[in-house]
Amino acid sequence: MPEPVGVRQAQAQRTRSGVLSAASAVFVDQGVQAPIRDIAERAGVGVGTIYRNFPTRADLVTAVYRHQIDTCTALAPRLLEESASPFTALTRWADAFVEFLVTKHGLSAALGSGDPGLEKLHALMLDTLVPACATLLDACADADELSPGITAYTLMRAIGNLCITGPDYDRDDAEHMVATLLAGCRREA
Amino acid sequence: MPEPVGVRQAQAQRTRSGVLSAASAVFVDQGVQAPIRDIAERAGVGVGTIYRNFPTRADLVTAVYRHQIDTCTALAPRLLEESASPFTALTRWADAFVEFLVTKHGLSAALGSGDPGLEKLHALMLDTLVPACATLLDACADADELSPGITAYTLMRAIGNLCITGPDYDRDDAEHMVATLLAGCRREA
Amino acid sequence: MPEPVGVRQAQAQRTRSGVLSAASAVFVDQGVQAPIRDIAERAGVGVGTIYRNFPTRADLVTAVYRHQIDTCTALAPRLLEESASPFTALTRWADAFVEFLVTKHGLSAALGSGDPGLEKLHALMLDTLVPACATLLDACADADELSPGITAYTLMRAIGNLCITGPDYDRDDAEHMVATLLAGCRREA
Amino acid sequence: MPEPVGVRQAQAQRTRSGVLSAASAVFVDQGVQAPIRDIAERAGVGVGTIYRNFPTRADLVTAVYRHQIDTCTALAPRLLEESASPFTALTRWADAFVEFLVTKHGLSAALGSGDPGLEKLHALMLDTLVPACATLLDACADADELSPGITAYTLMRAIGNLCITGPDYDRDDAEHMVATLLAGCRREA
DNA sequence: TATGAATGAGGCTTCATTCAT
DNA sequence: AATGAATGAAGCCTCATTCAT
């Protein structure tokens, strides 16, 4: 009896999704350096399955955050349309980015760690988020709302760093400091 | 025959200094989580010597940065006297802090890591750098040069985070972003 | 294609048994404090395998002796049935216990060491051997063959201690002293 | 000015005594395997001083217990004179030996451990205590009060083992079991 | 494909012992 | 004779990674 085409693939896809969900949760709890075994246990799979799907830790980290990064990227053009001014759009977009980062504690630290294994995640950001941010910055520049010399990559990296929270520097502090940084980016009239 | 006073102490002190130098260098290369053995090898001592002098890793990290932190702390009142305005003093002091941080890559990451073992270093900063910074901020506030709601601890933590450098976000970028953050802290006339 | 059920479990079980055999042998040679690595080498496995199967040293020690302890426990009621008098049964049972102990040098020393990590083994004895011994003592008491004040736990501990052998105090000496102790336990007519 | 003869030696002797006192106390707390450094700290001397006076751990252990062993040895002939019967003398002497052992927790375990480094202590016992005990046993045998086959060394070793106390087998239990063992040694009339 | 047992490198820490002063 | 800083071997334990089933 021939098995229906794609059943196997569907199952494999479900396994993959389960791993990603588990990894996401474990990263929040323990950071991106969490033991692979912990993720496997949370996902209810063997460690071999994780290695099959994500040969390196960086592959896993990247996959975990890819969807949210894509969502964030897609937000930029929409905000630009909807907002009263380009700088307002930039501010709102930064809010969304911060929202993303502060709920994924491990991510900011990971991005800031310089870990060479995370180059793929780095590349993902360069490829998607940075251009999105650049669009916003260009619009601000066109509207004469931006101090000179601010580049998308540097700004995003700075925002990312400001989102590394801890016991005495929480989400509110991060939001406050990002808002302050953006205020400093605004060209004085 | 009395042995020359302090000969052994002097030798021990030299050993201790050598360990601190080695640790400082290794921290720059590998971060504060570097294996103790690597530090011992760089210092040319056995691991036992490191454990004797610095029972915990946090003790070592703290000792490595204590001197520079103290220097930075002492700078604040001097700048306040010498500078044309309190905000200028704050800016210069931030420059010095950044200078310190970006040459000690490991430190910023350590401060941002939330590692519970580094509470001593954290406490050291709270006890010395934060009050120094608070003095500057108070002066700025008295001169009506500061946006409301900026606290010394949060600002320092933010500056610290902005100084977590990497391949595509270097010292110049950190300085730029810190300057931008401070610009955002300045009350608009 | 379903993999033959239990093939891997069987292999794992064999590994586990091999570890237990190796541990048993190493304990005789070196005592229960022997390095884990030595046991791993004797078993032909990596240290990780031992830690996987027996997370703590006490787990390993307990497992090593559990089977023999159970055997010894099961012997008590049988001897009570078969023997001419309860005291004879007690004597025979003590012989079996001694037989067990003197061939497992490490065990007696372990029981006498007060090592807090060996509470599990201690508990195992309390839970199984002591009740078995108590049955025999009760029968002796009922037959008026026992001096008053002898409790199962104390007696077993004493027997255990008497079985700590060494170069000049061997198995025969232990048997002799245990027999002498039991003679002292017998109520004088 | 010539220093009075013997001042140095007297000082050295005082150092030695201090080390022995400290070691005795530490052995009670931690057993005879206590770190040398702990003993040095308790004695207020450097570890080198301990190594100078007692090159091996066994030397130290032996020295610590020598005095008490000698006292115990000297007791035997006195008890033999004073007591109504040789067996009474033996019983009393055993009481004294138990008293010594149960207050020196580490010792019994040490004697039973088979540690080859403790051969000196072992030898000390063979050389002094065993002959003393043998005198008592001989007297008992002459008075027809002793079961045949009981040798001094084996009996002492057995008593020593019975004195290995722990949480659920205390001094009273040890005394009880030693008394029971001796009862078993008594020739039935 | 999925599994998870097994491996063993690698980091941590303690402490016996040496030796220059 | 006394000191105690320094050494480094030795044990512990974790976890990334492989591979037979």
TrEMBL record, chains A, B, C, D:
HTH tetR-type domain sequence ranges: 13-72
Residue ranges flagged as DNA-binding region: 35-54
Pfam family, one: TetR_N
Keyword annotations from UniProtKB, A to Z: DNA-binding, Transcription, Transcription regulation
Alphabetical list of InterPro entries matching this protein: Homeodomain-like_sf, HTH-type_TetR-like_transc_reg, HTH_TetR, Tet_transcr_reg_TetR-rel_C_sf, TetR_SbtR-like_C
Protein name: AcrR family transcriptional regulator
Lineage: Bacteria, Bacillati, Actinomycetota, Actinomycetes, Streptosporangiales
